[in-house]
Automatic annotation (TrEMBL):
Cell location: Nucleus
Keyword Transcription regulation in annotation: yes
PANTHER family, per database record: GENERAL TRANSCRIPTION FACTOR IIH SUBUNIT 2, GENERAL TRANSCRIPTION FACTOR IIH SUBUNIT 2-RELATED
Annotated protein name in UniProt: General transcription factor IIH subunit
SUPFAM superfamilies, alphabetized: Cysteine-rich domain (SSF57889), vWA-like (SSF53300)
Family matches, as InterPro entries: C1-like_sf, Ssl1-like, TFIIH_C1-like_dom, TFIIH_SSL1/p44, VWF_A, vWFA_dom_sf, Znf_C2H2_type, Znf_RING/FYVE/PHD
UniProt keyword list: DNA damage, DNA repair, Metal-binding, Nucleus, Transcription, Transcription regulation, Zinc, Zinc-finger
Gene3D superfamilies named among the record's database cross-references: von Willebrand factor, type A domain, Zinc/RING finger domain, C3HC4 (zinc finger)
Zinc finger (C4-type) stretch: 303-320
Nucleotidyltransferase keyword on record: no
Lineage start: Eukaryota, Viridiplantae, Chlorophyta, core chlorophytes, Chlorophyceae
GO molecular function, one term: zinc ion binding
Pfam families: C1_4, Ssl1
GO biological process: DNA-templated transcription; nucleotide-excision repair; regulation of transcription by RNA polymerase II
Organism, scientific name: Raphidocelis subcapitata
Length: 472
């Protein structure tokens, strides 16, 4: 029986090269290797339409601009007690896979980070979560001051489906924020993935109702800009942004954690009665009914007015309505009134001059130390009393000659005051990859910081460490 070969395969027993398991494994390894390599994100289009490498400092400068704007708006009147409803789009658009692993996972991760940052910066405020899916809006959590309770409920509601309805979400938020006291600001922050709003009625009437109720509506979009969402933010005095990447989405959300400026015509400043409850003992024998939905528990906090027990702070007493807080909550709200002034950027030429000055001062200090050690050795066998060894390891001569302090100050100018990161490349030609991309200076103490420490000082610490040491 004759056997015929066609293109390297036996006739009648053709083998499909695509089914080769070895090739599949090789392709999977290649795919895993470049799964996180988003090379297109390192390119940008210039004014002439040509592709150029992305400026590594462009994103840092944009982020610094937001920090500077927030610091400069500190003297603007702000609402310290906020009531915010976070509206999350869980329609079928949230299940799209254009973000890894999906829009839903990225959106919920950013929402959880925002919830924690919101309560960290606004300990006297309250937040609730509303979800949009299947053409309706549902209230996932009530307004409260517990971030972990909000996140736990959000983790249990990850199902997506249907369309998003802006009208239903706004109507629900207006009703939920209606009982808010006049001294509190009313806000709605929507995280939207859909590019359309499927509404049962007139969505423009819902927008007007939100504006009449003095509710500030802000939107962060994951897909494209939507006209009706832009109109809602403009008519209510909110902000609208569209995320360009996962990191940009997180930054867009976190920018709403700080209190916004109070709108024109807001209620005049007034005193708010608050109570500082005492912590109840954790002894099981002291268990009482705690909270609005009574649970027999030990511990909790006792209202100073009506002696009712509540489980968490801050909150409103479910019996007498008194706002209950602790002293750390009040202290953490202070930095919004008097924030750290924005640091000034130091140019590359000035950084290079500081590096050269530090190198020259270091050489002079070494020479002075060597001469002082030699003189001390000739006079007394080492510079110490009775000819003993120097107590400071041989550096006492430089300090006595007055070279120690200037040398230390010049050398410190090359390093970040906060984390000791190099602020300039190694002048000897060493590896300069660890040098800071951007150098900034505090206007009060004149110390230098890297960009990461600048962000940490202005967004988390809210105090300059060098200025604190000088004020002691």
């Amino acid at each position: 029986m004759a056997t015929y070969y066609i293109a390297g395969h036996i006739a009648g027993e053709l083998i499909d090269d695509d089914d080769d398991p070895g090739e599949d494994r090789s392709y999977e390894a290649f795919e895993r290797r470049y799964a996180g390599d988003h090379s297109w994100e390192r390119l940008q289009e210039d004014a002439q339409g040509r592709l150029r490498p992305v400026d590594p400092t462009a994103e840092l400068r944009a982020r610094r601009q937001r920090i500077t704007s927030a610091a400069r708006s500190a003297r603007v009147r702000k609402g310290m007690i906020r009531y915010v409803l976070l509206v999350i789009d869980l329609s079928k658009a949230a299940a799209v896979m254009d973000m890894r692993p999906s829009r839903l996972s990225i959106m919920t991760g950013a929402a959880k980070a925002f919830i924690r940052a919101f309560f960290d910066q606004n300990p006297l405020s309250q937040l609730g979560v509303v979800v949009m899916r299947n053409g309706v809006a549902a209230r996932l959590t009530e307004l409260s001051g517990s971030p972990e309770a909000q996140i736990a409920q959000l983790n249990a509601a990850m199902a997506t489906g249907g369309e998003a309805s802006l009208q239903n979400a706004l109507e629900l938020c207006v009703e939920a924020l209606r009982p808010v006291p006049p001294y509190g600001t009313r806000e709605v922050l929507a995280l939207v993935a859909a590019i359309a709003s499927v509404d049962p009625g007139d969505v423009r009437a819902a927008i007007r109702a939100a504006a009449d109720a003095k509710i500030r509506v802000s939107v962060v979009g994951v897909a494209a800009e939507v006209h009706i969402l832009r109109r809602a933010t403009e008519e209510t005095g909110g902000a609208y942004g569209v995320a360009l990447s996962e990191q940009h989405l997180a930054e867009q959300l976190l920018s709403h954690a700080a209190p916004p400026p109070a709108p024109p015509g807001a209620a005049a400043a007034e005193l708010v009665r608050m109570g500082f409850p005492q912590r109840a003992p954790e002894d099981p024998a002291a268990a009482v009914f705690v909270g609005e939905n009574p649970e027999l528990l030990a511990g909790g906090y006792t209202c100073p007015r009506c002696k009712a027990r509540t489980g968490e702070l801050p909150c409103r007493c479910h019996v007498c309505g008194l706002t209950l807080i602790s002293s750390p909550h009040l202290a953490r709200s202070y930095h919004h009134l008097f924030p750290v002034e924005p640091f000034e950027e130091v140019g590359e030429e000035e950084v290079q001059e500081l590096a050269e000055a530090a190198a020259a001062a270091s050489e002079a200090a070494d020479a002075a130390e060597a001469s002082a050690s030699a003189a001390g050795g000739a006079a007394g066998g080492g510079g110490a009393p009775n000819g003993g060894p120097a107590a400071d390891g041989g550096g006492g001569g430089a300090a006595a000659a007055g070279w120690g302090a200037p040398w230390r100050e010049a050398a410190a100018a090359l390093y970040c005051y906060g984390c000791l990161r190099p602020l300039a490349p190694d002048p000897d030609g060493g590896d300069g990859d660890d040098a800071a991309t951007m150098v900034l200076r505090c206007g009060a103490c004149r110390q230098l910081f890297c960009f990461e420490c600048d962000v940490y000082i202005h967004e988390s610490l809210h105090n300059c460490p060098s200025c604190l040491l000088r004020s002691r």
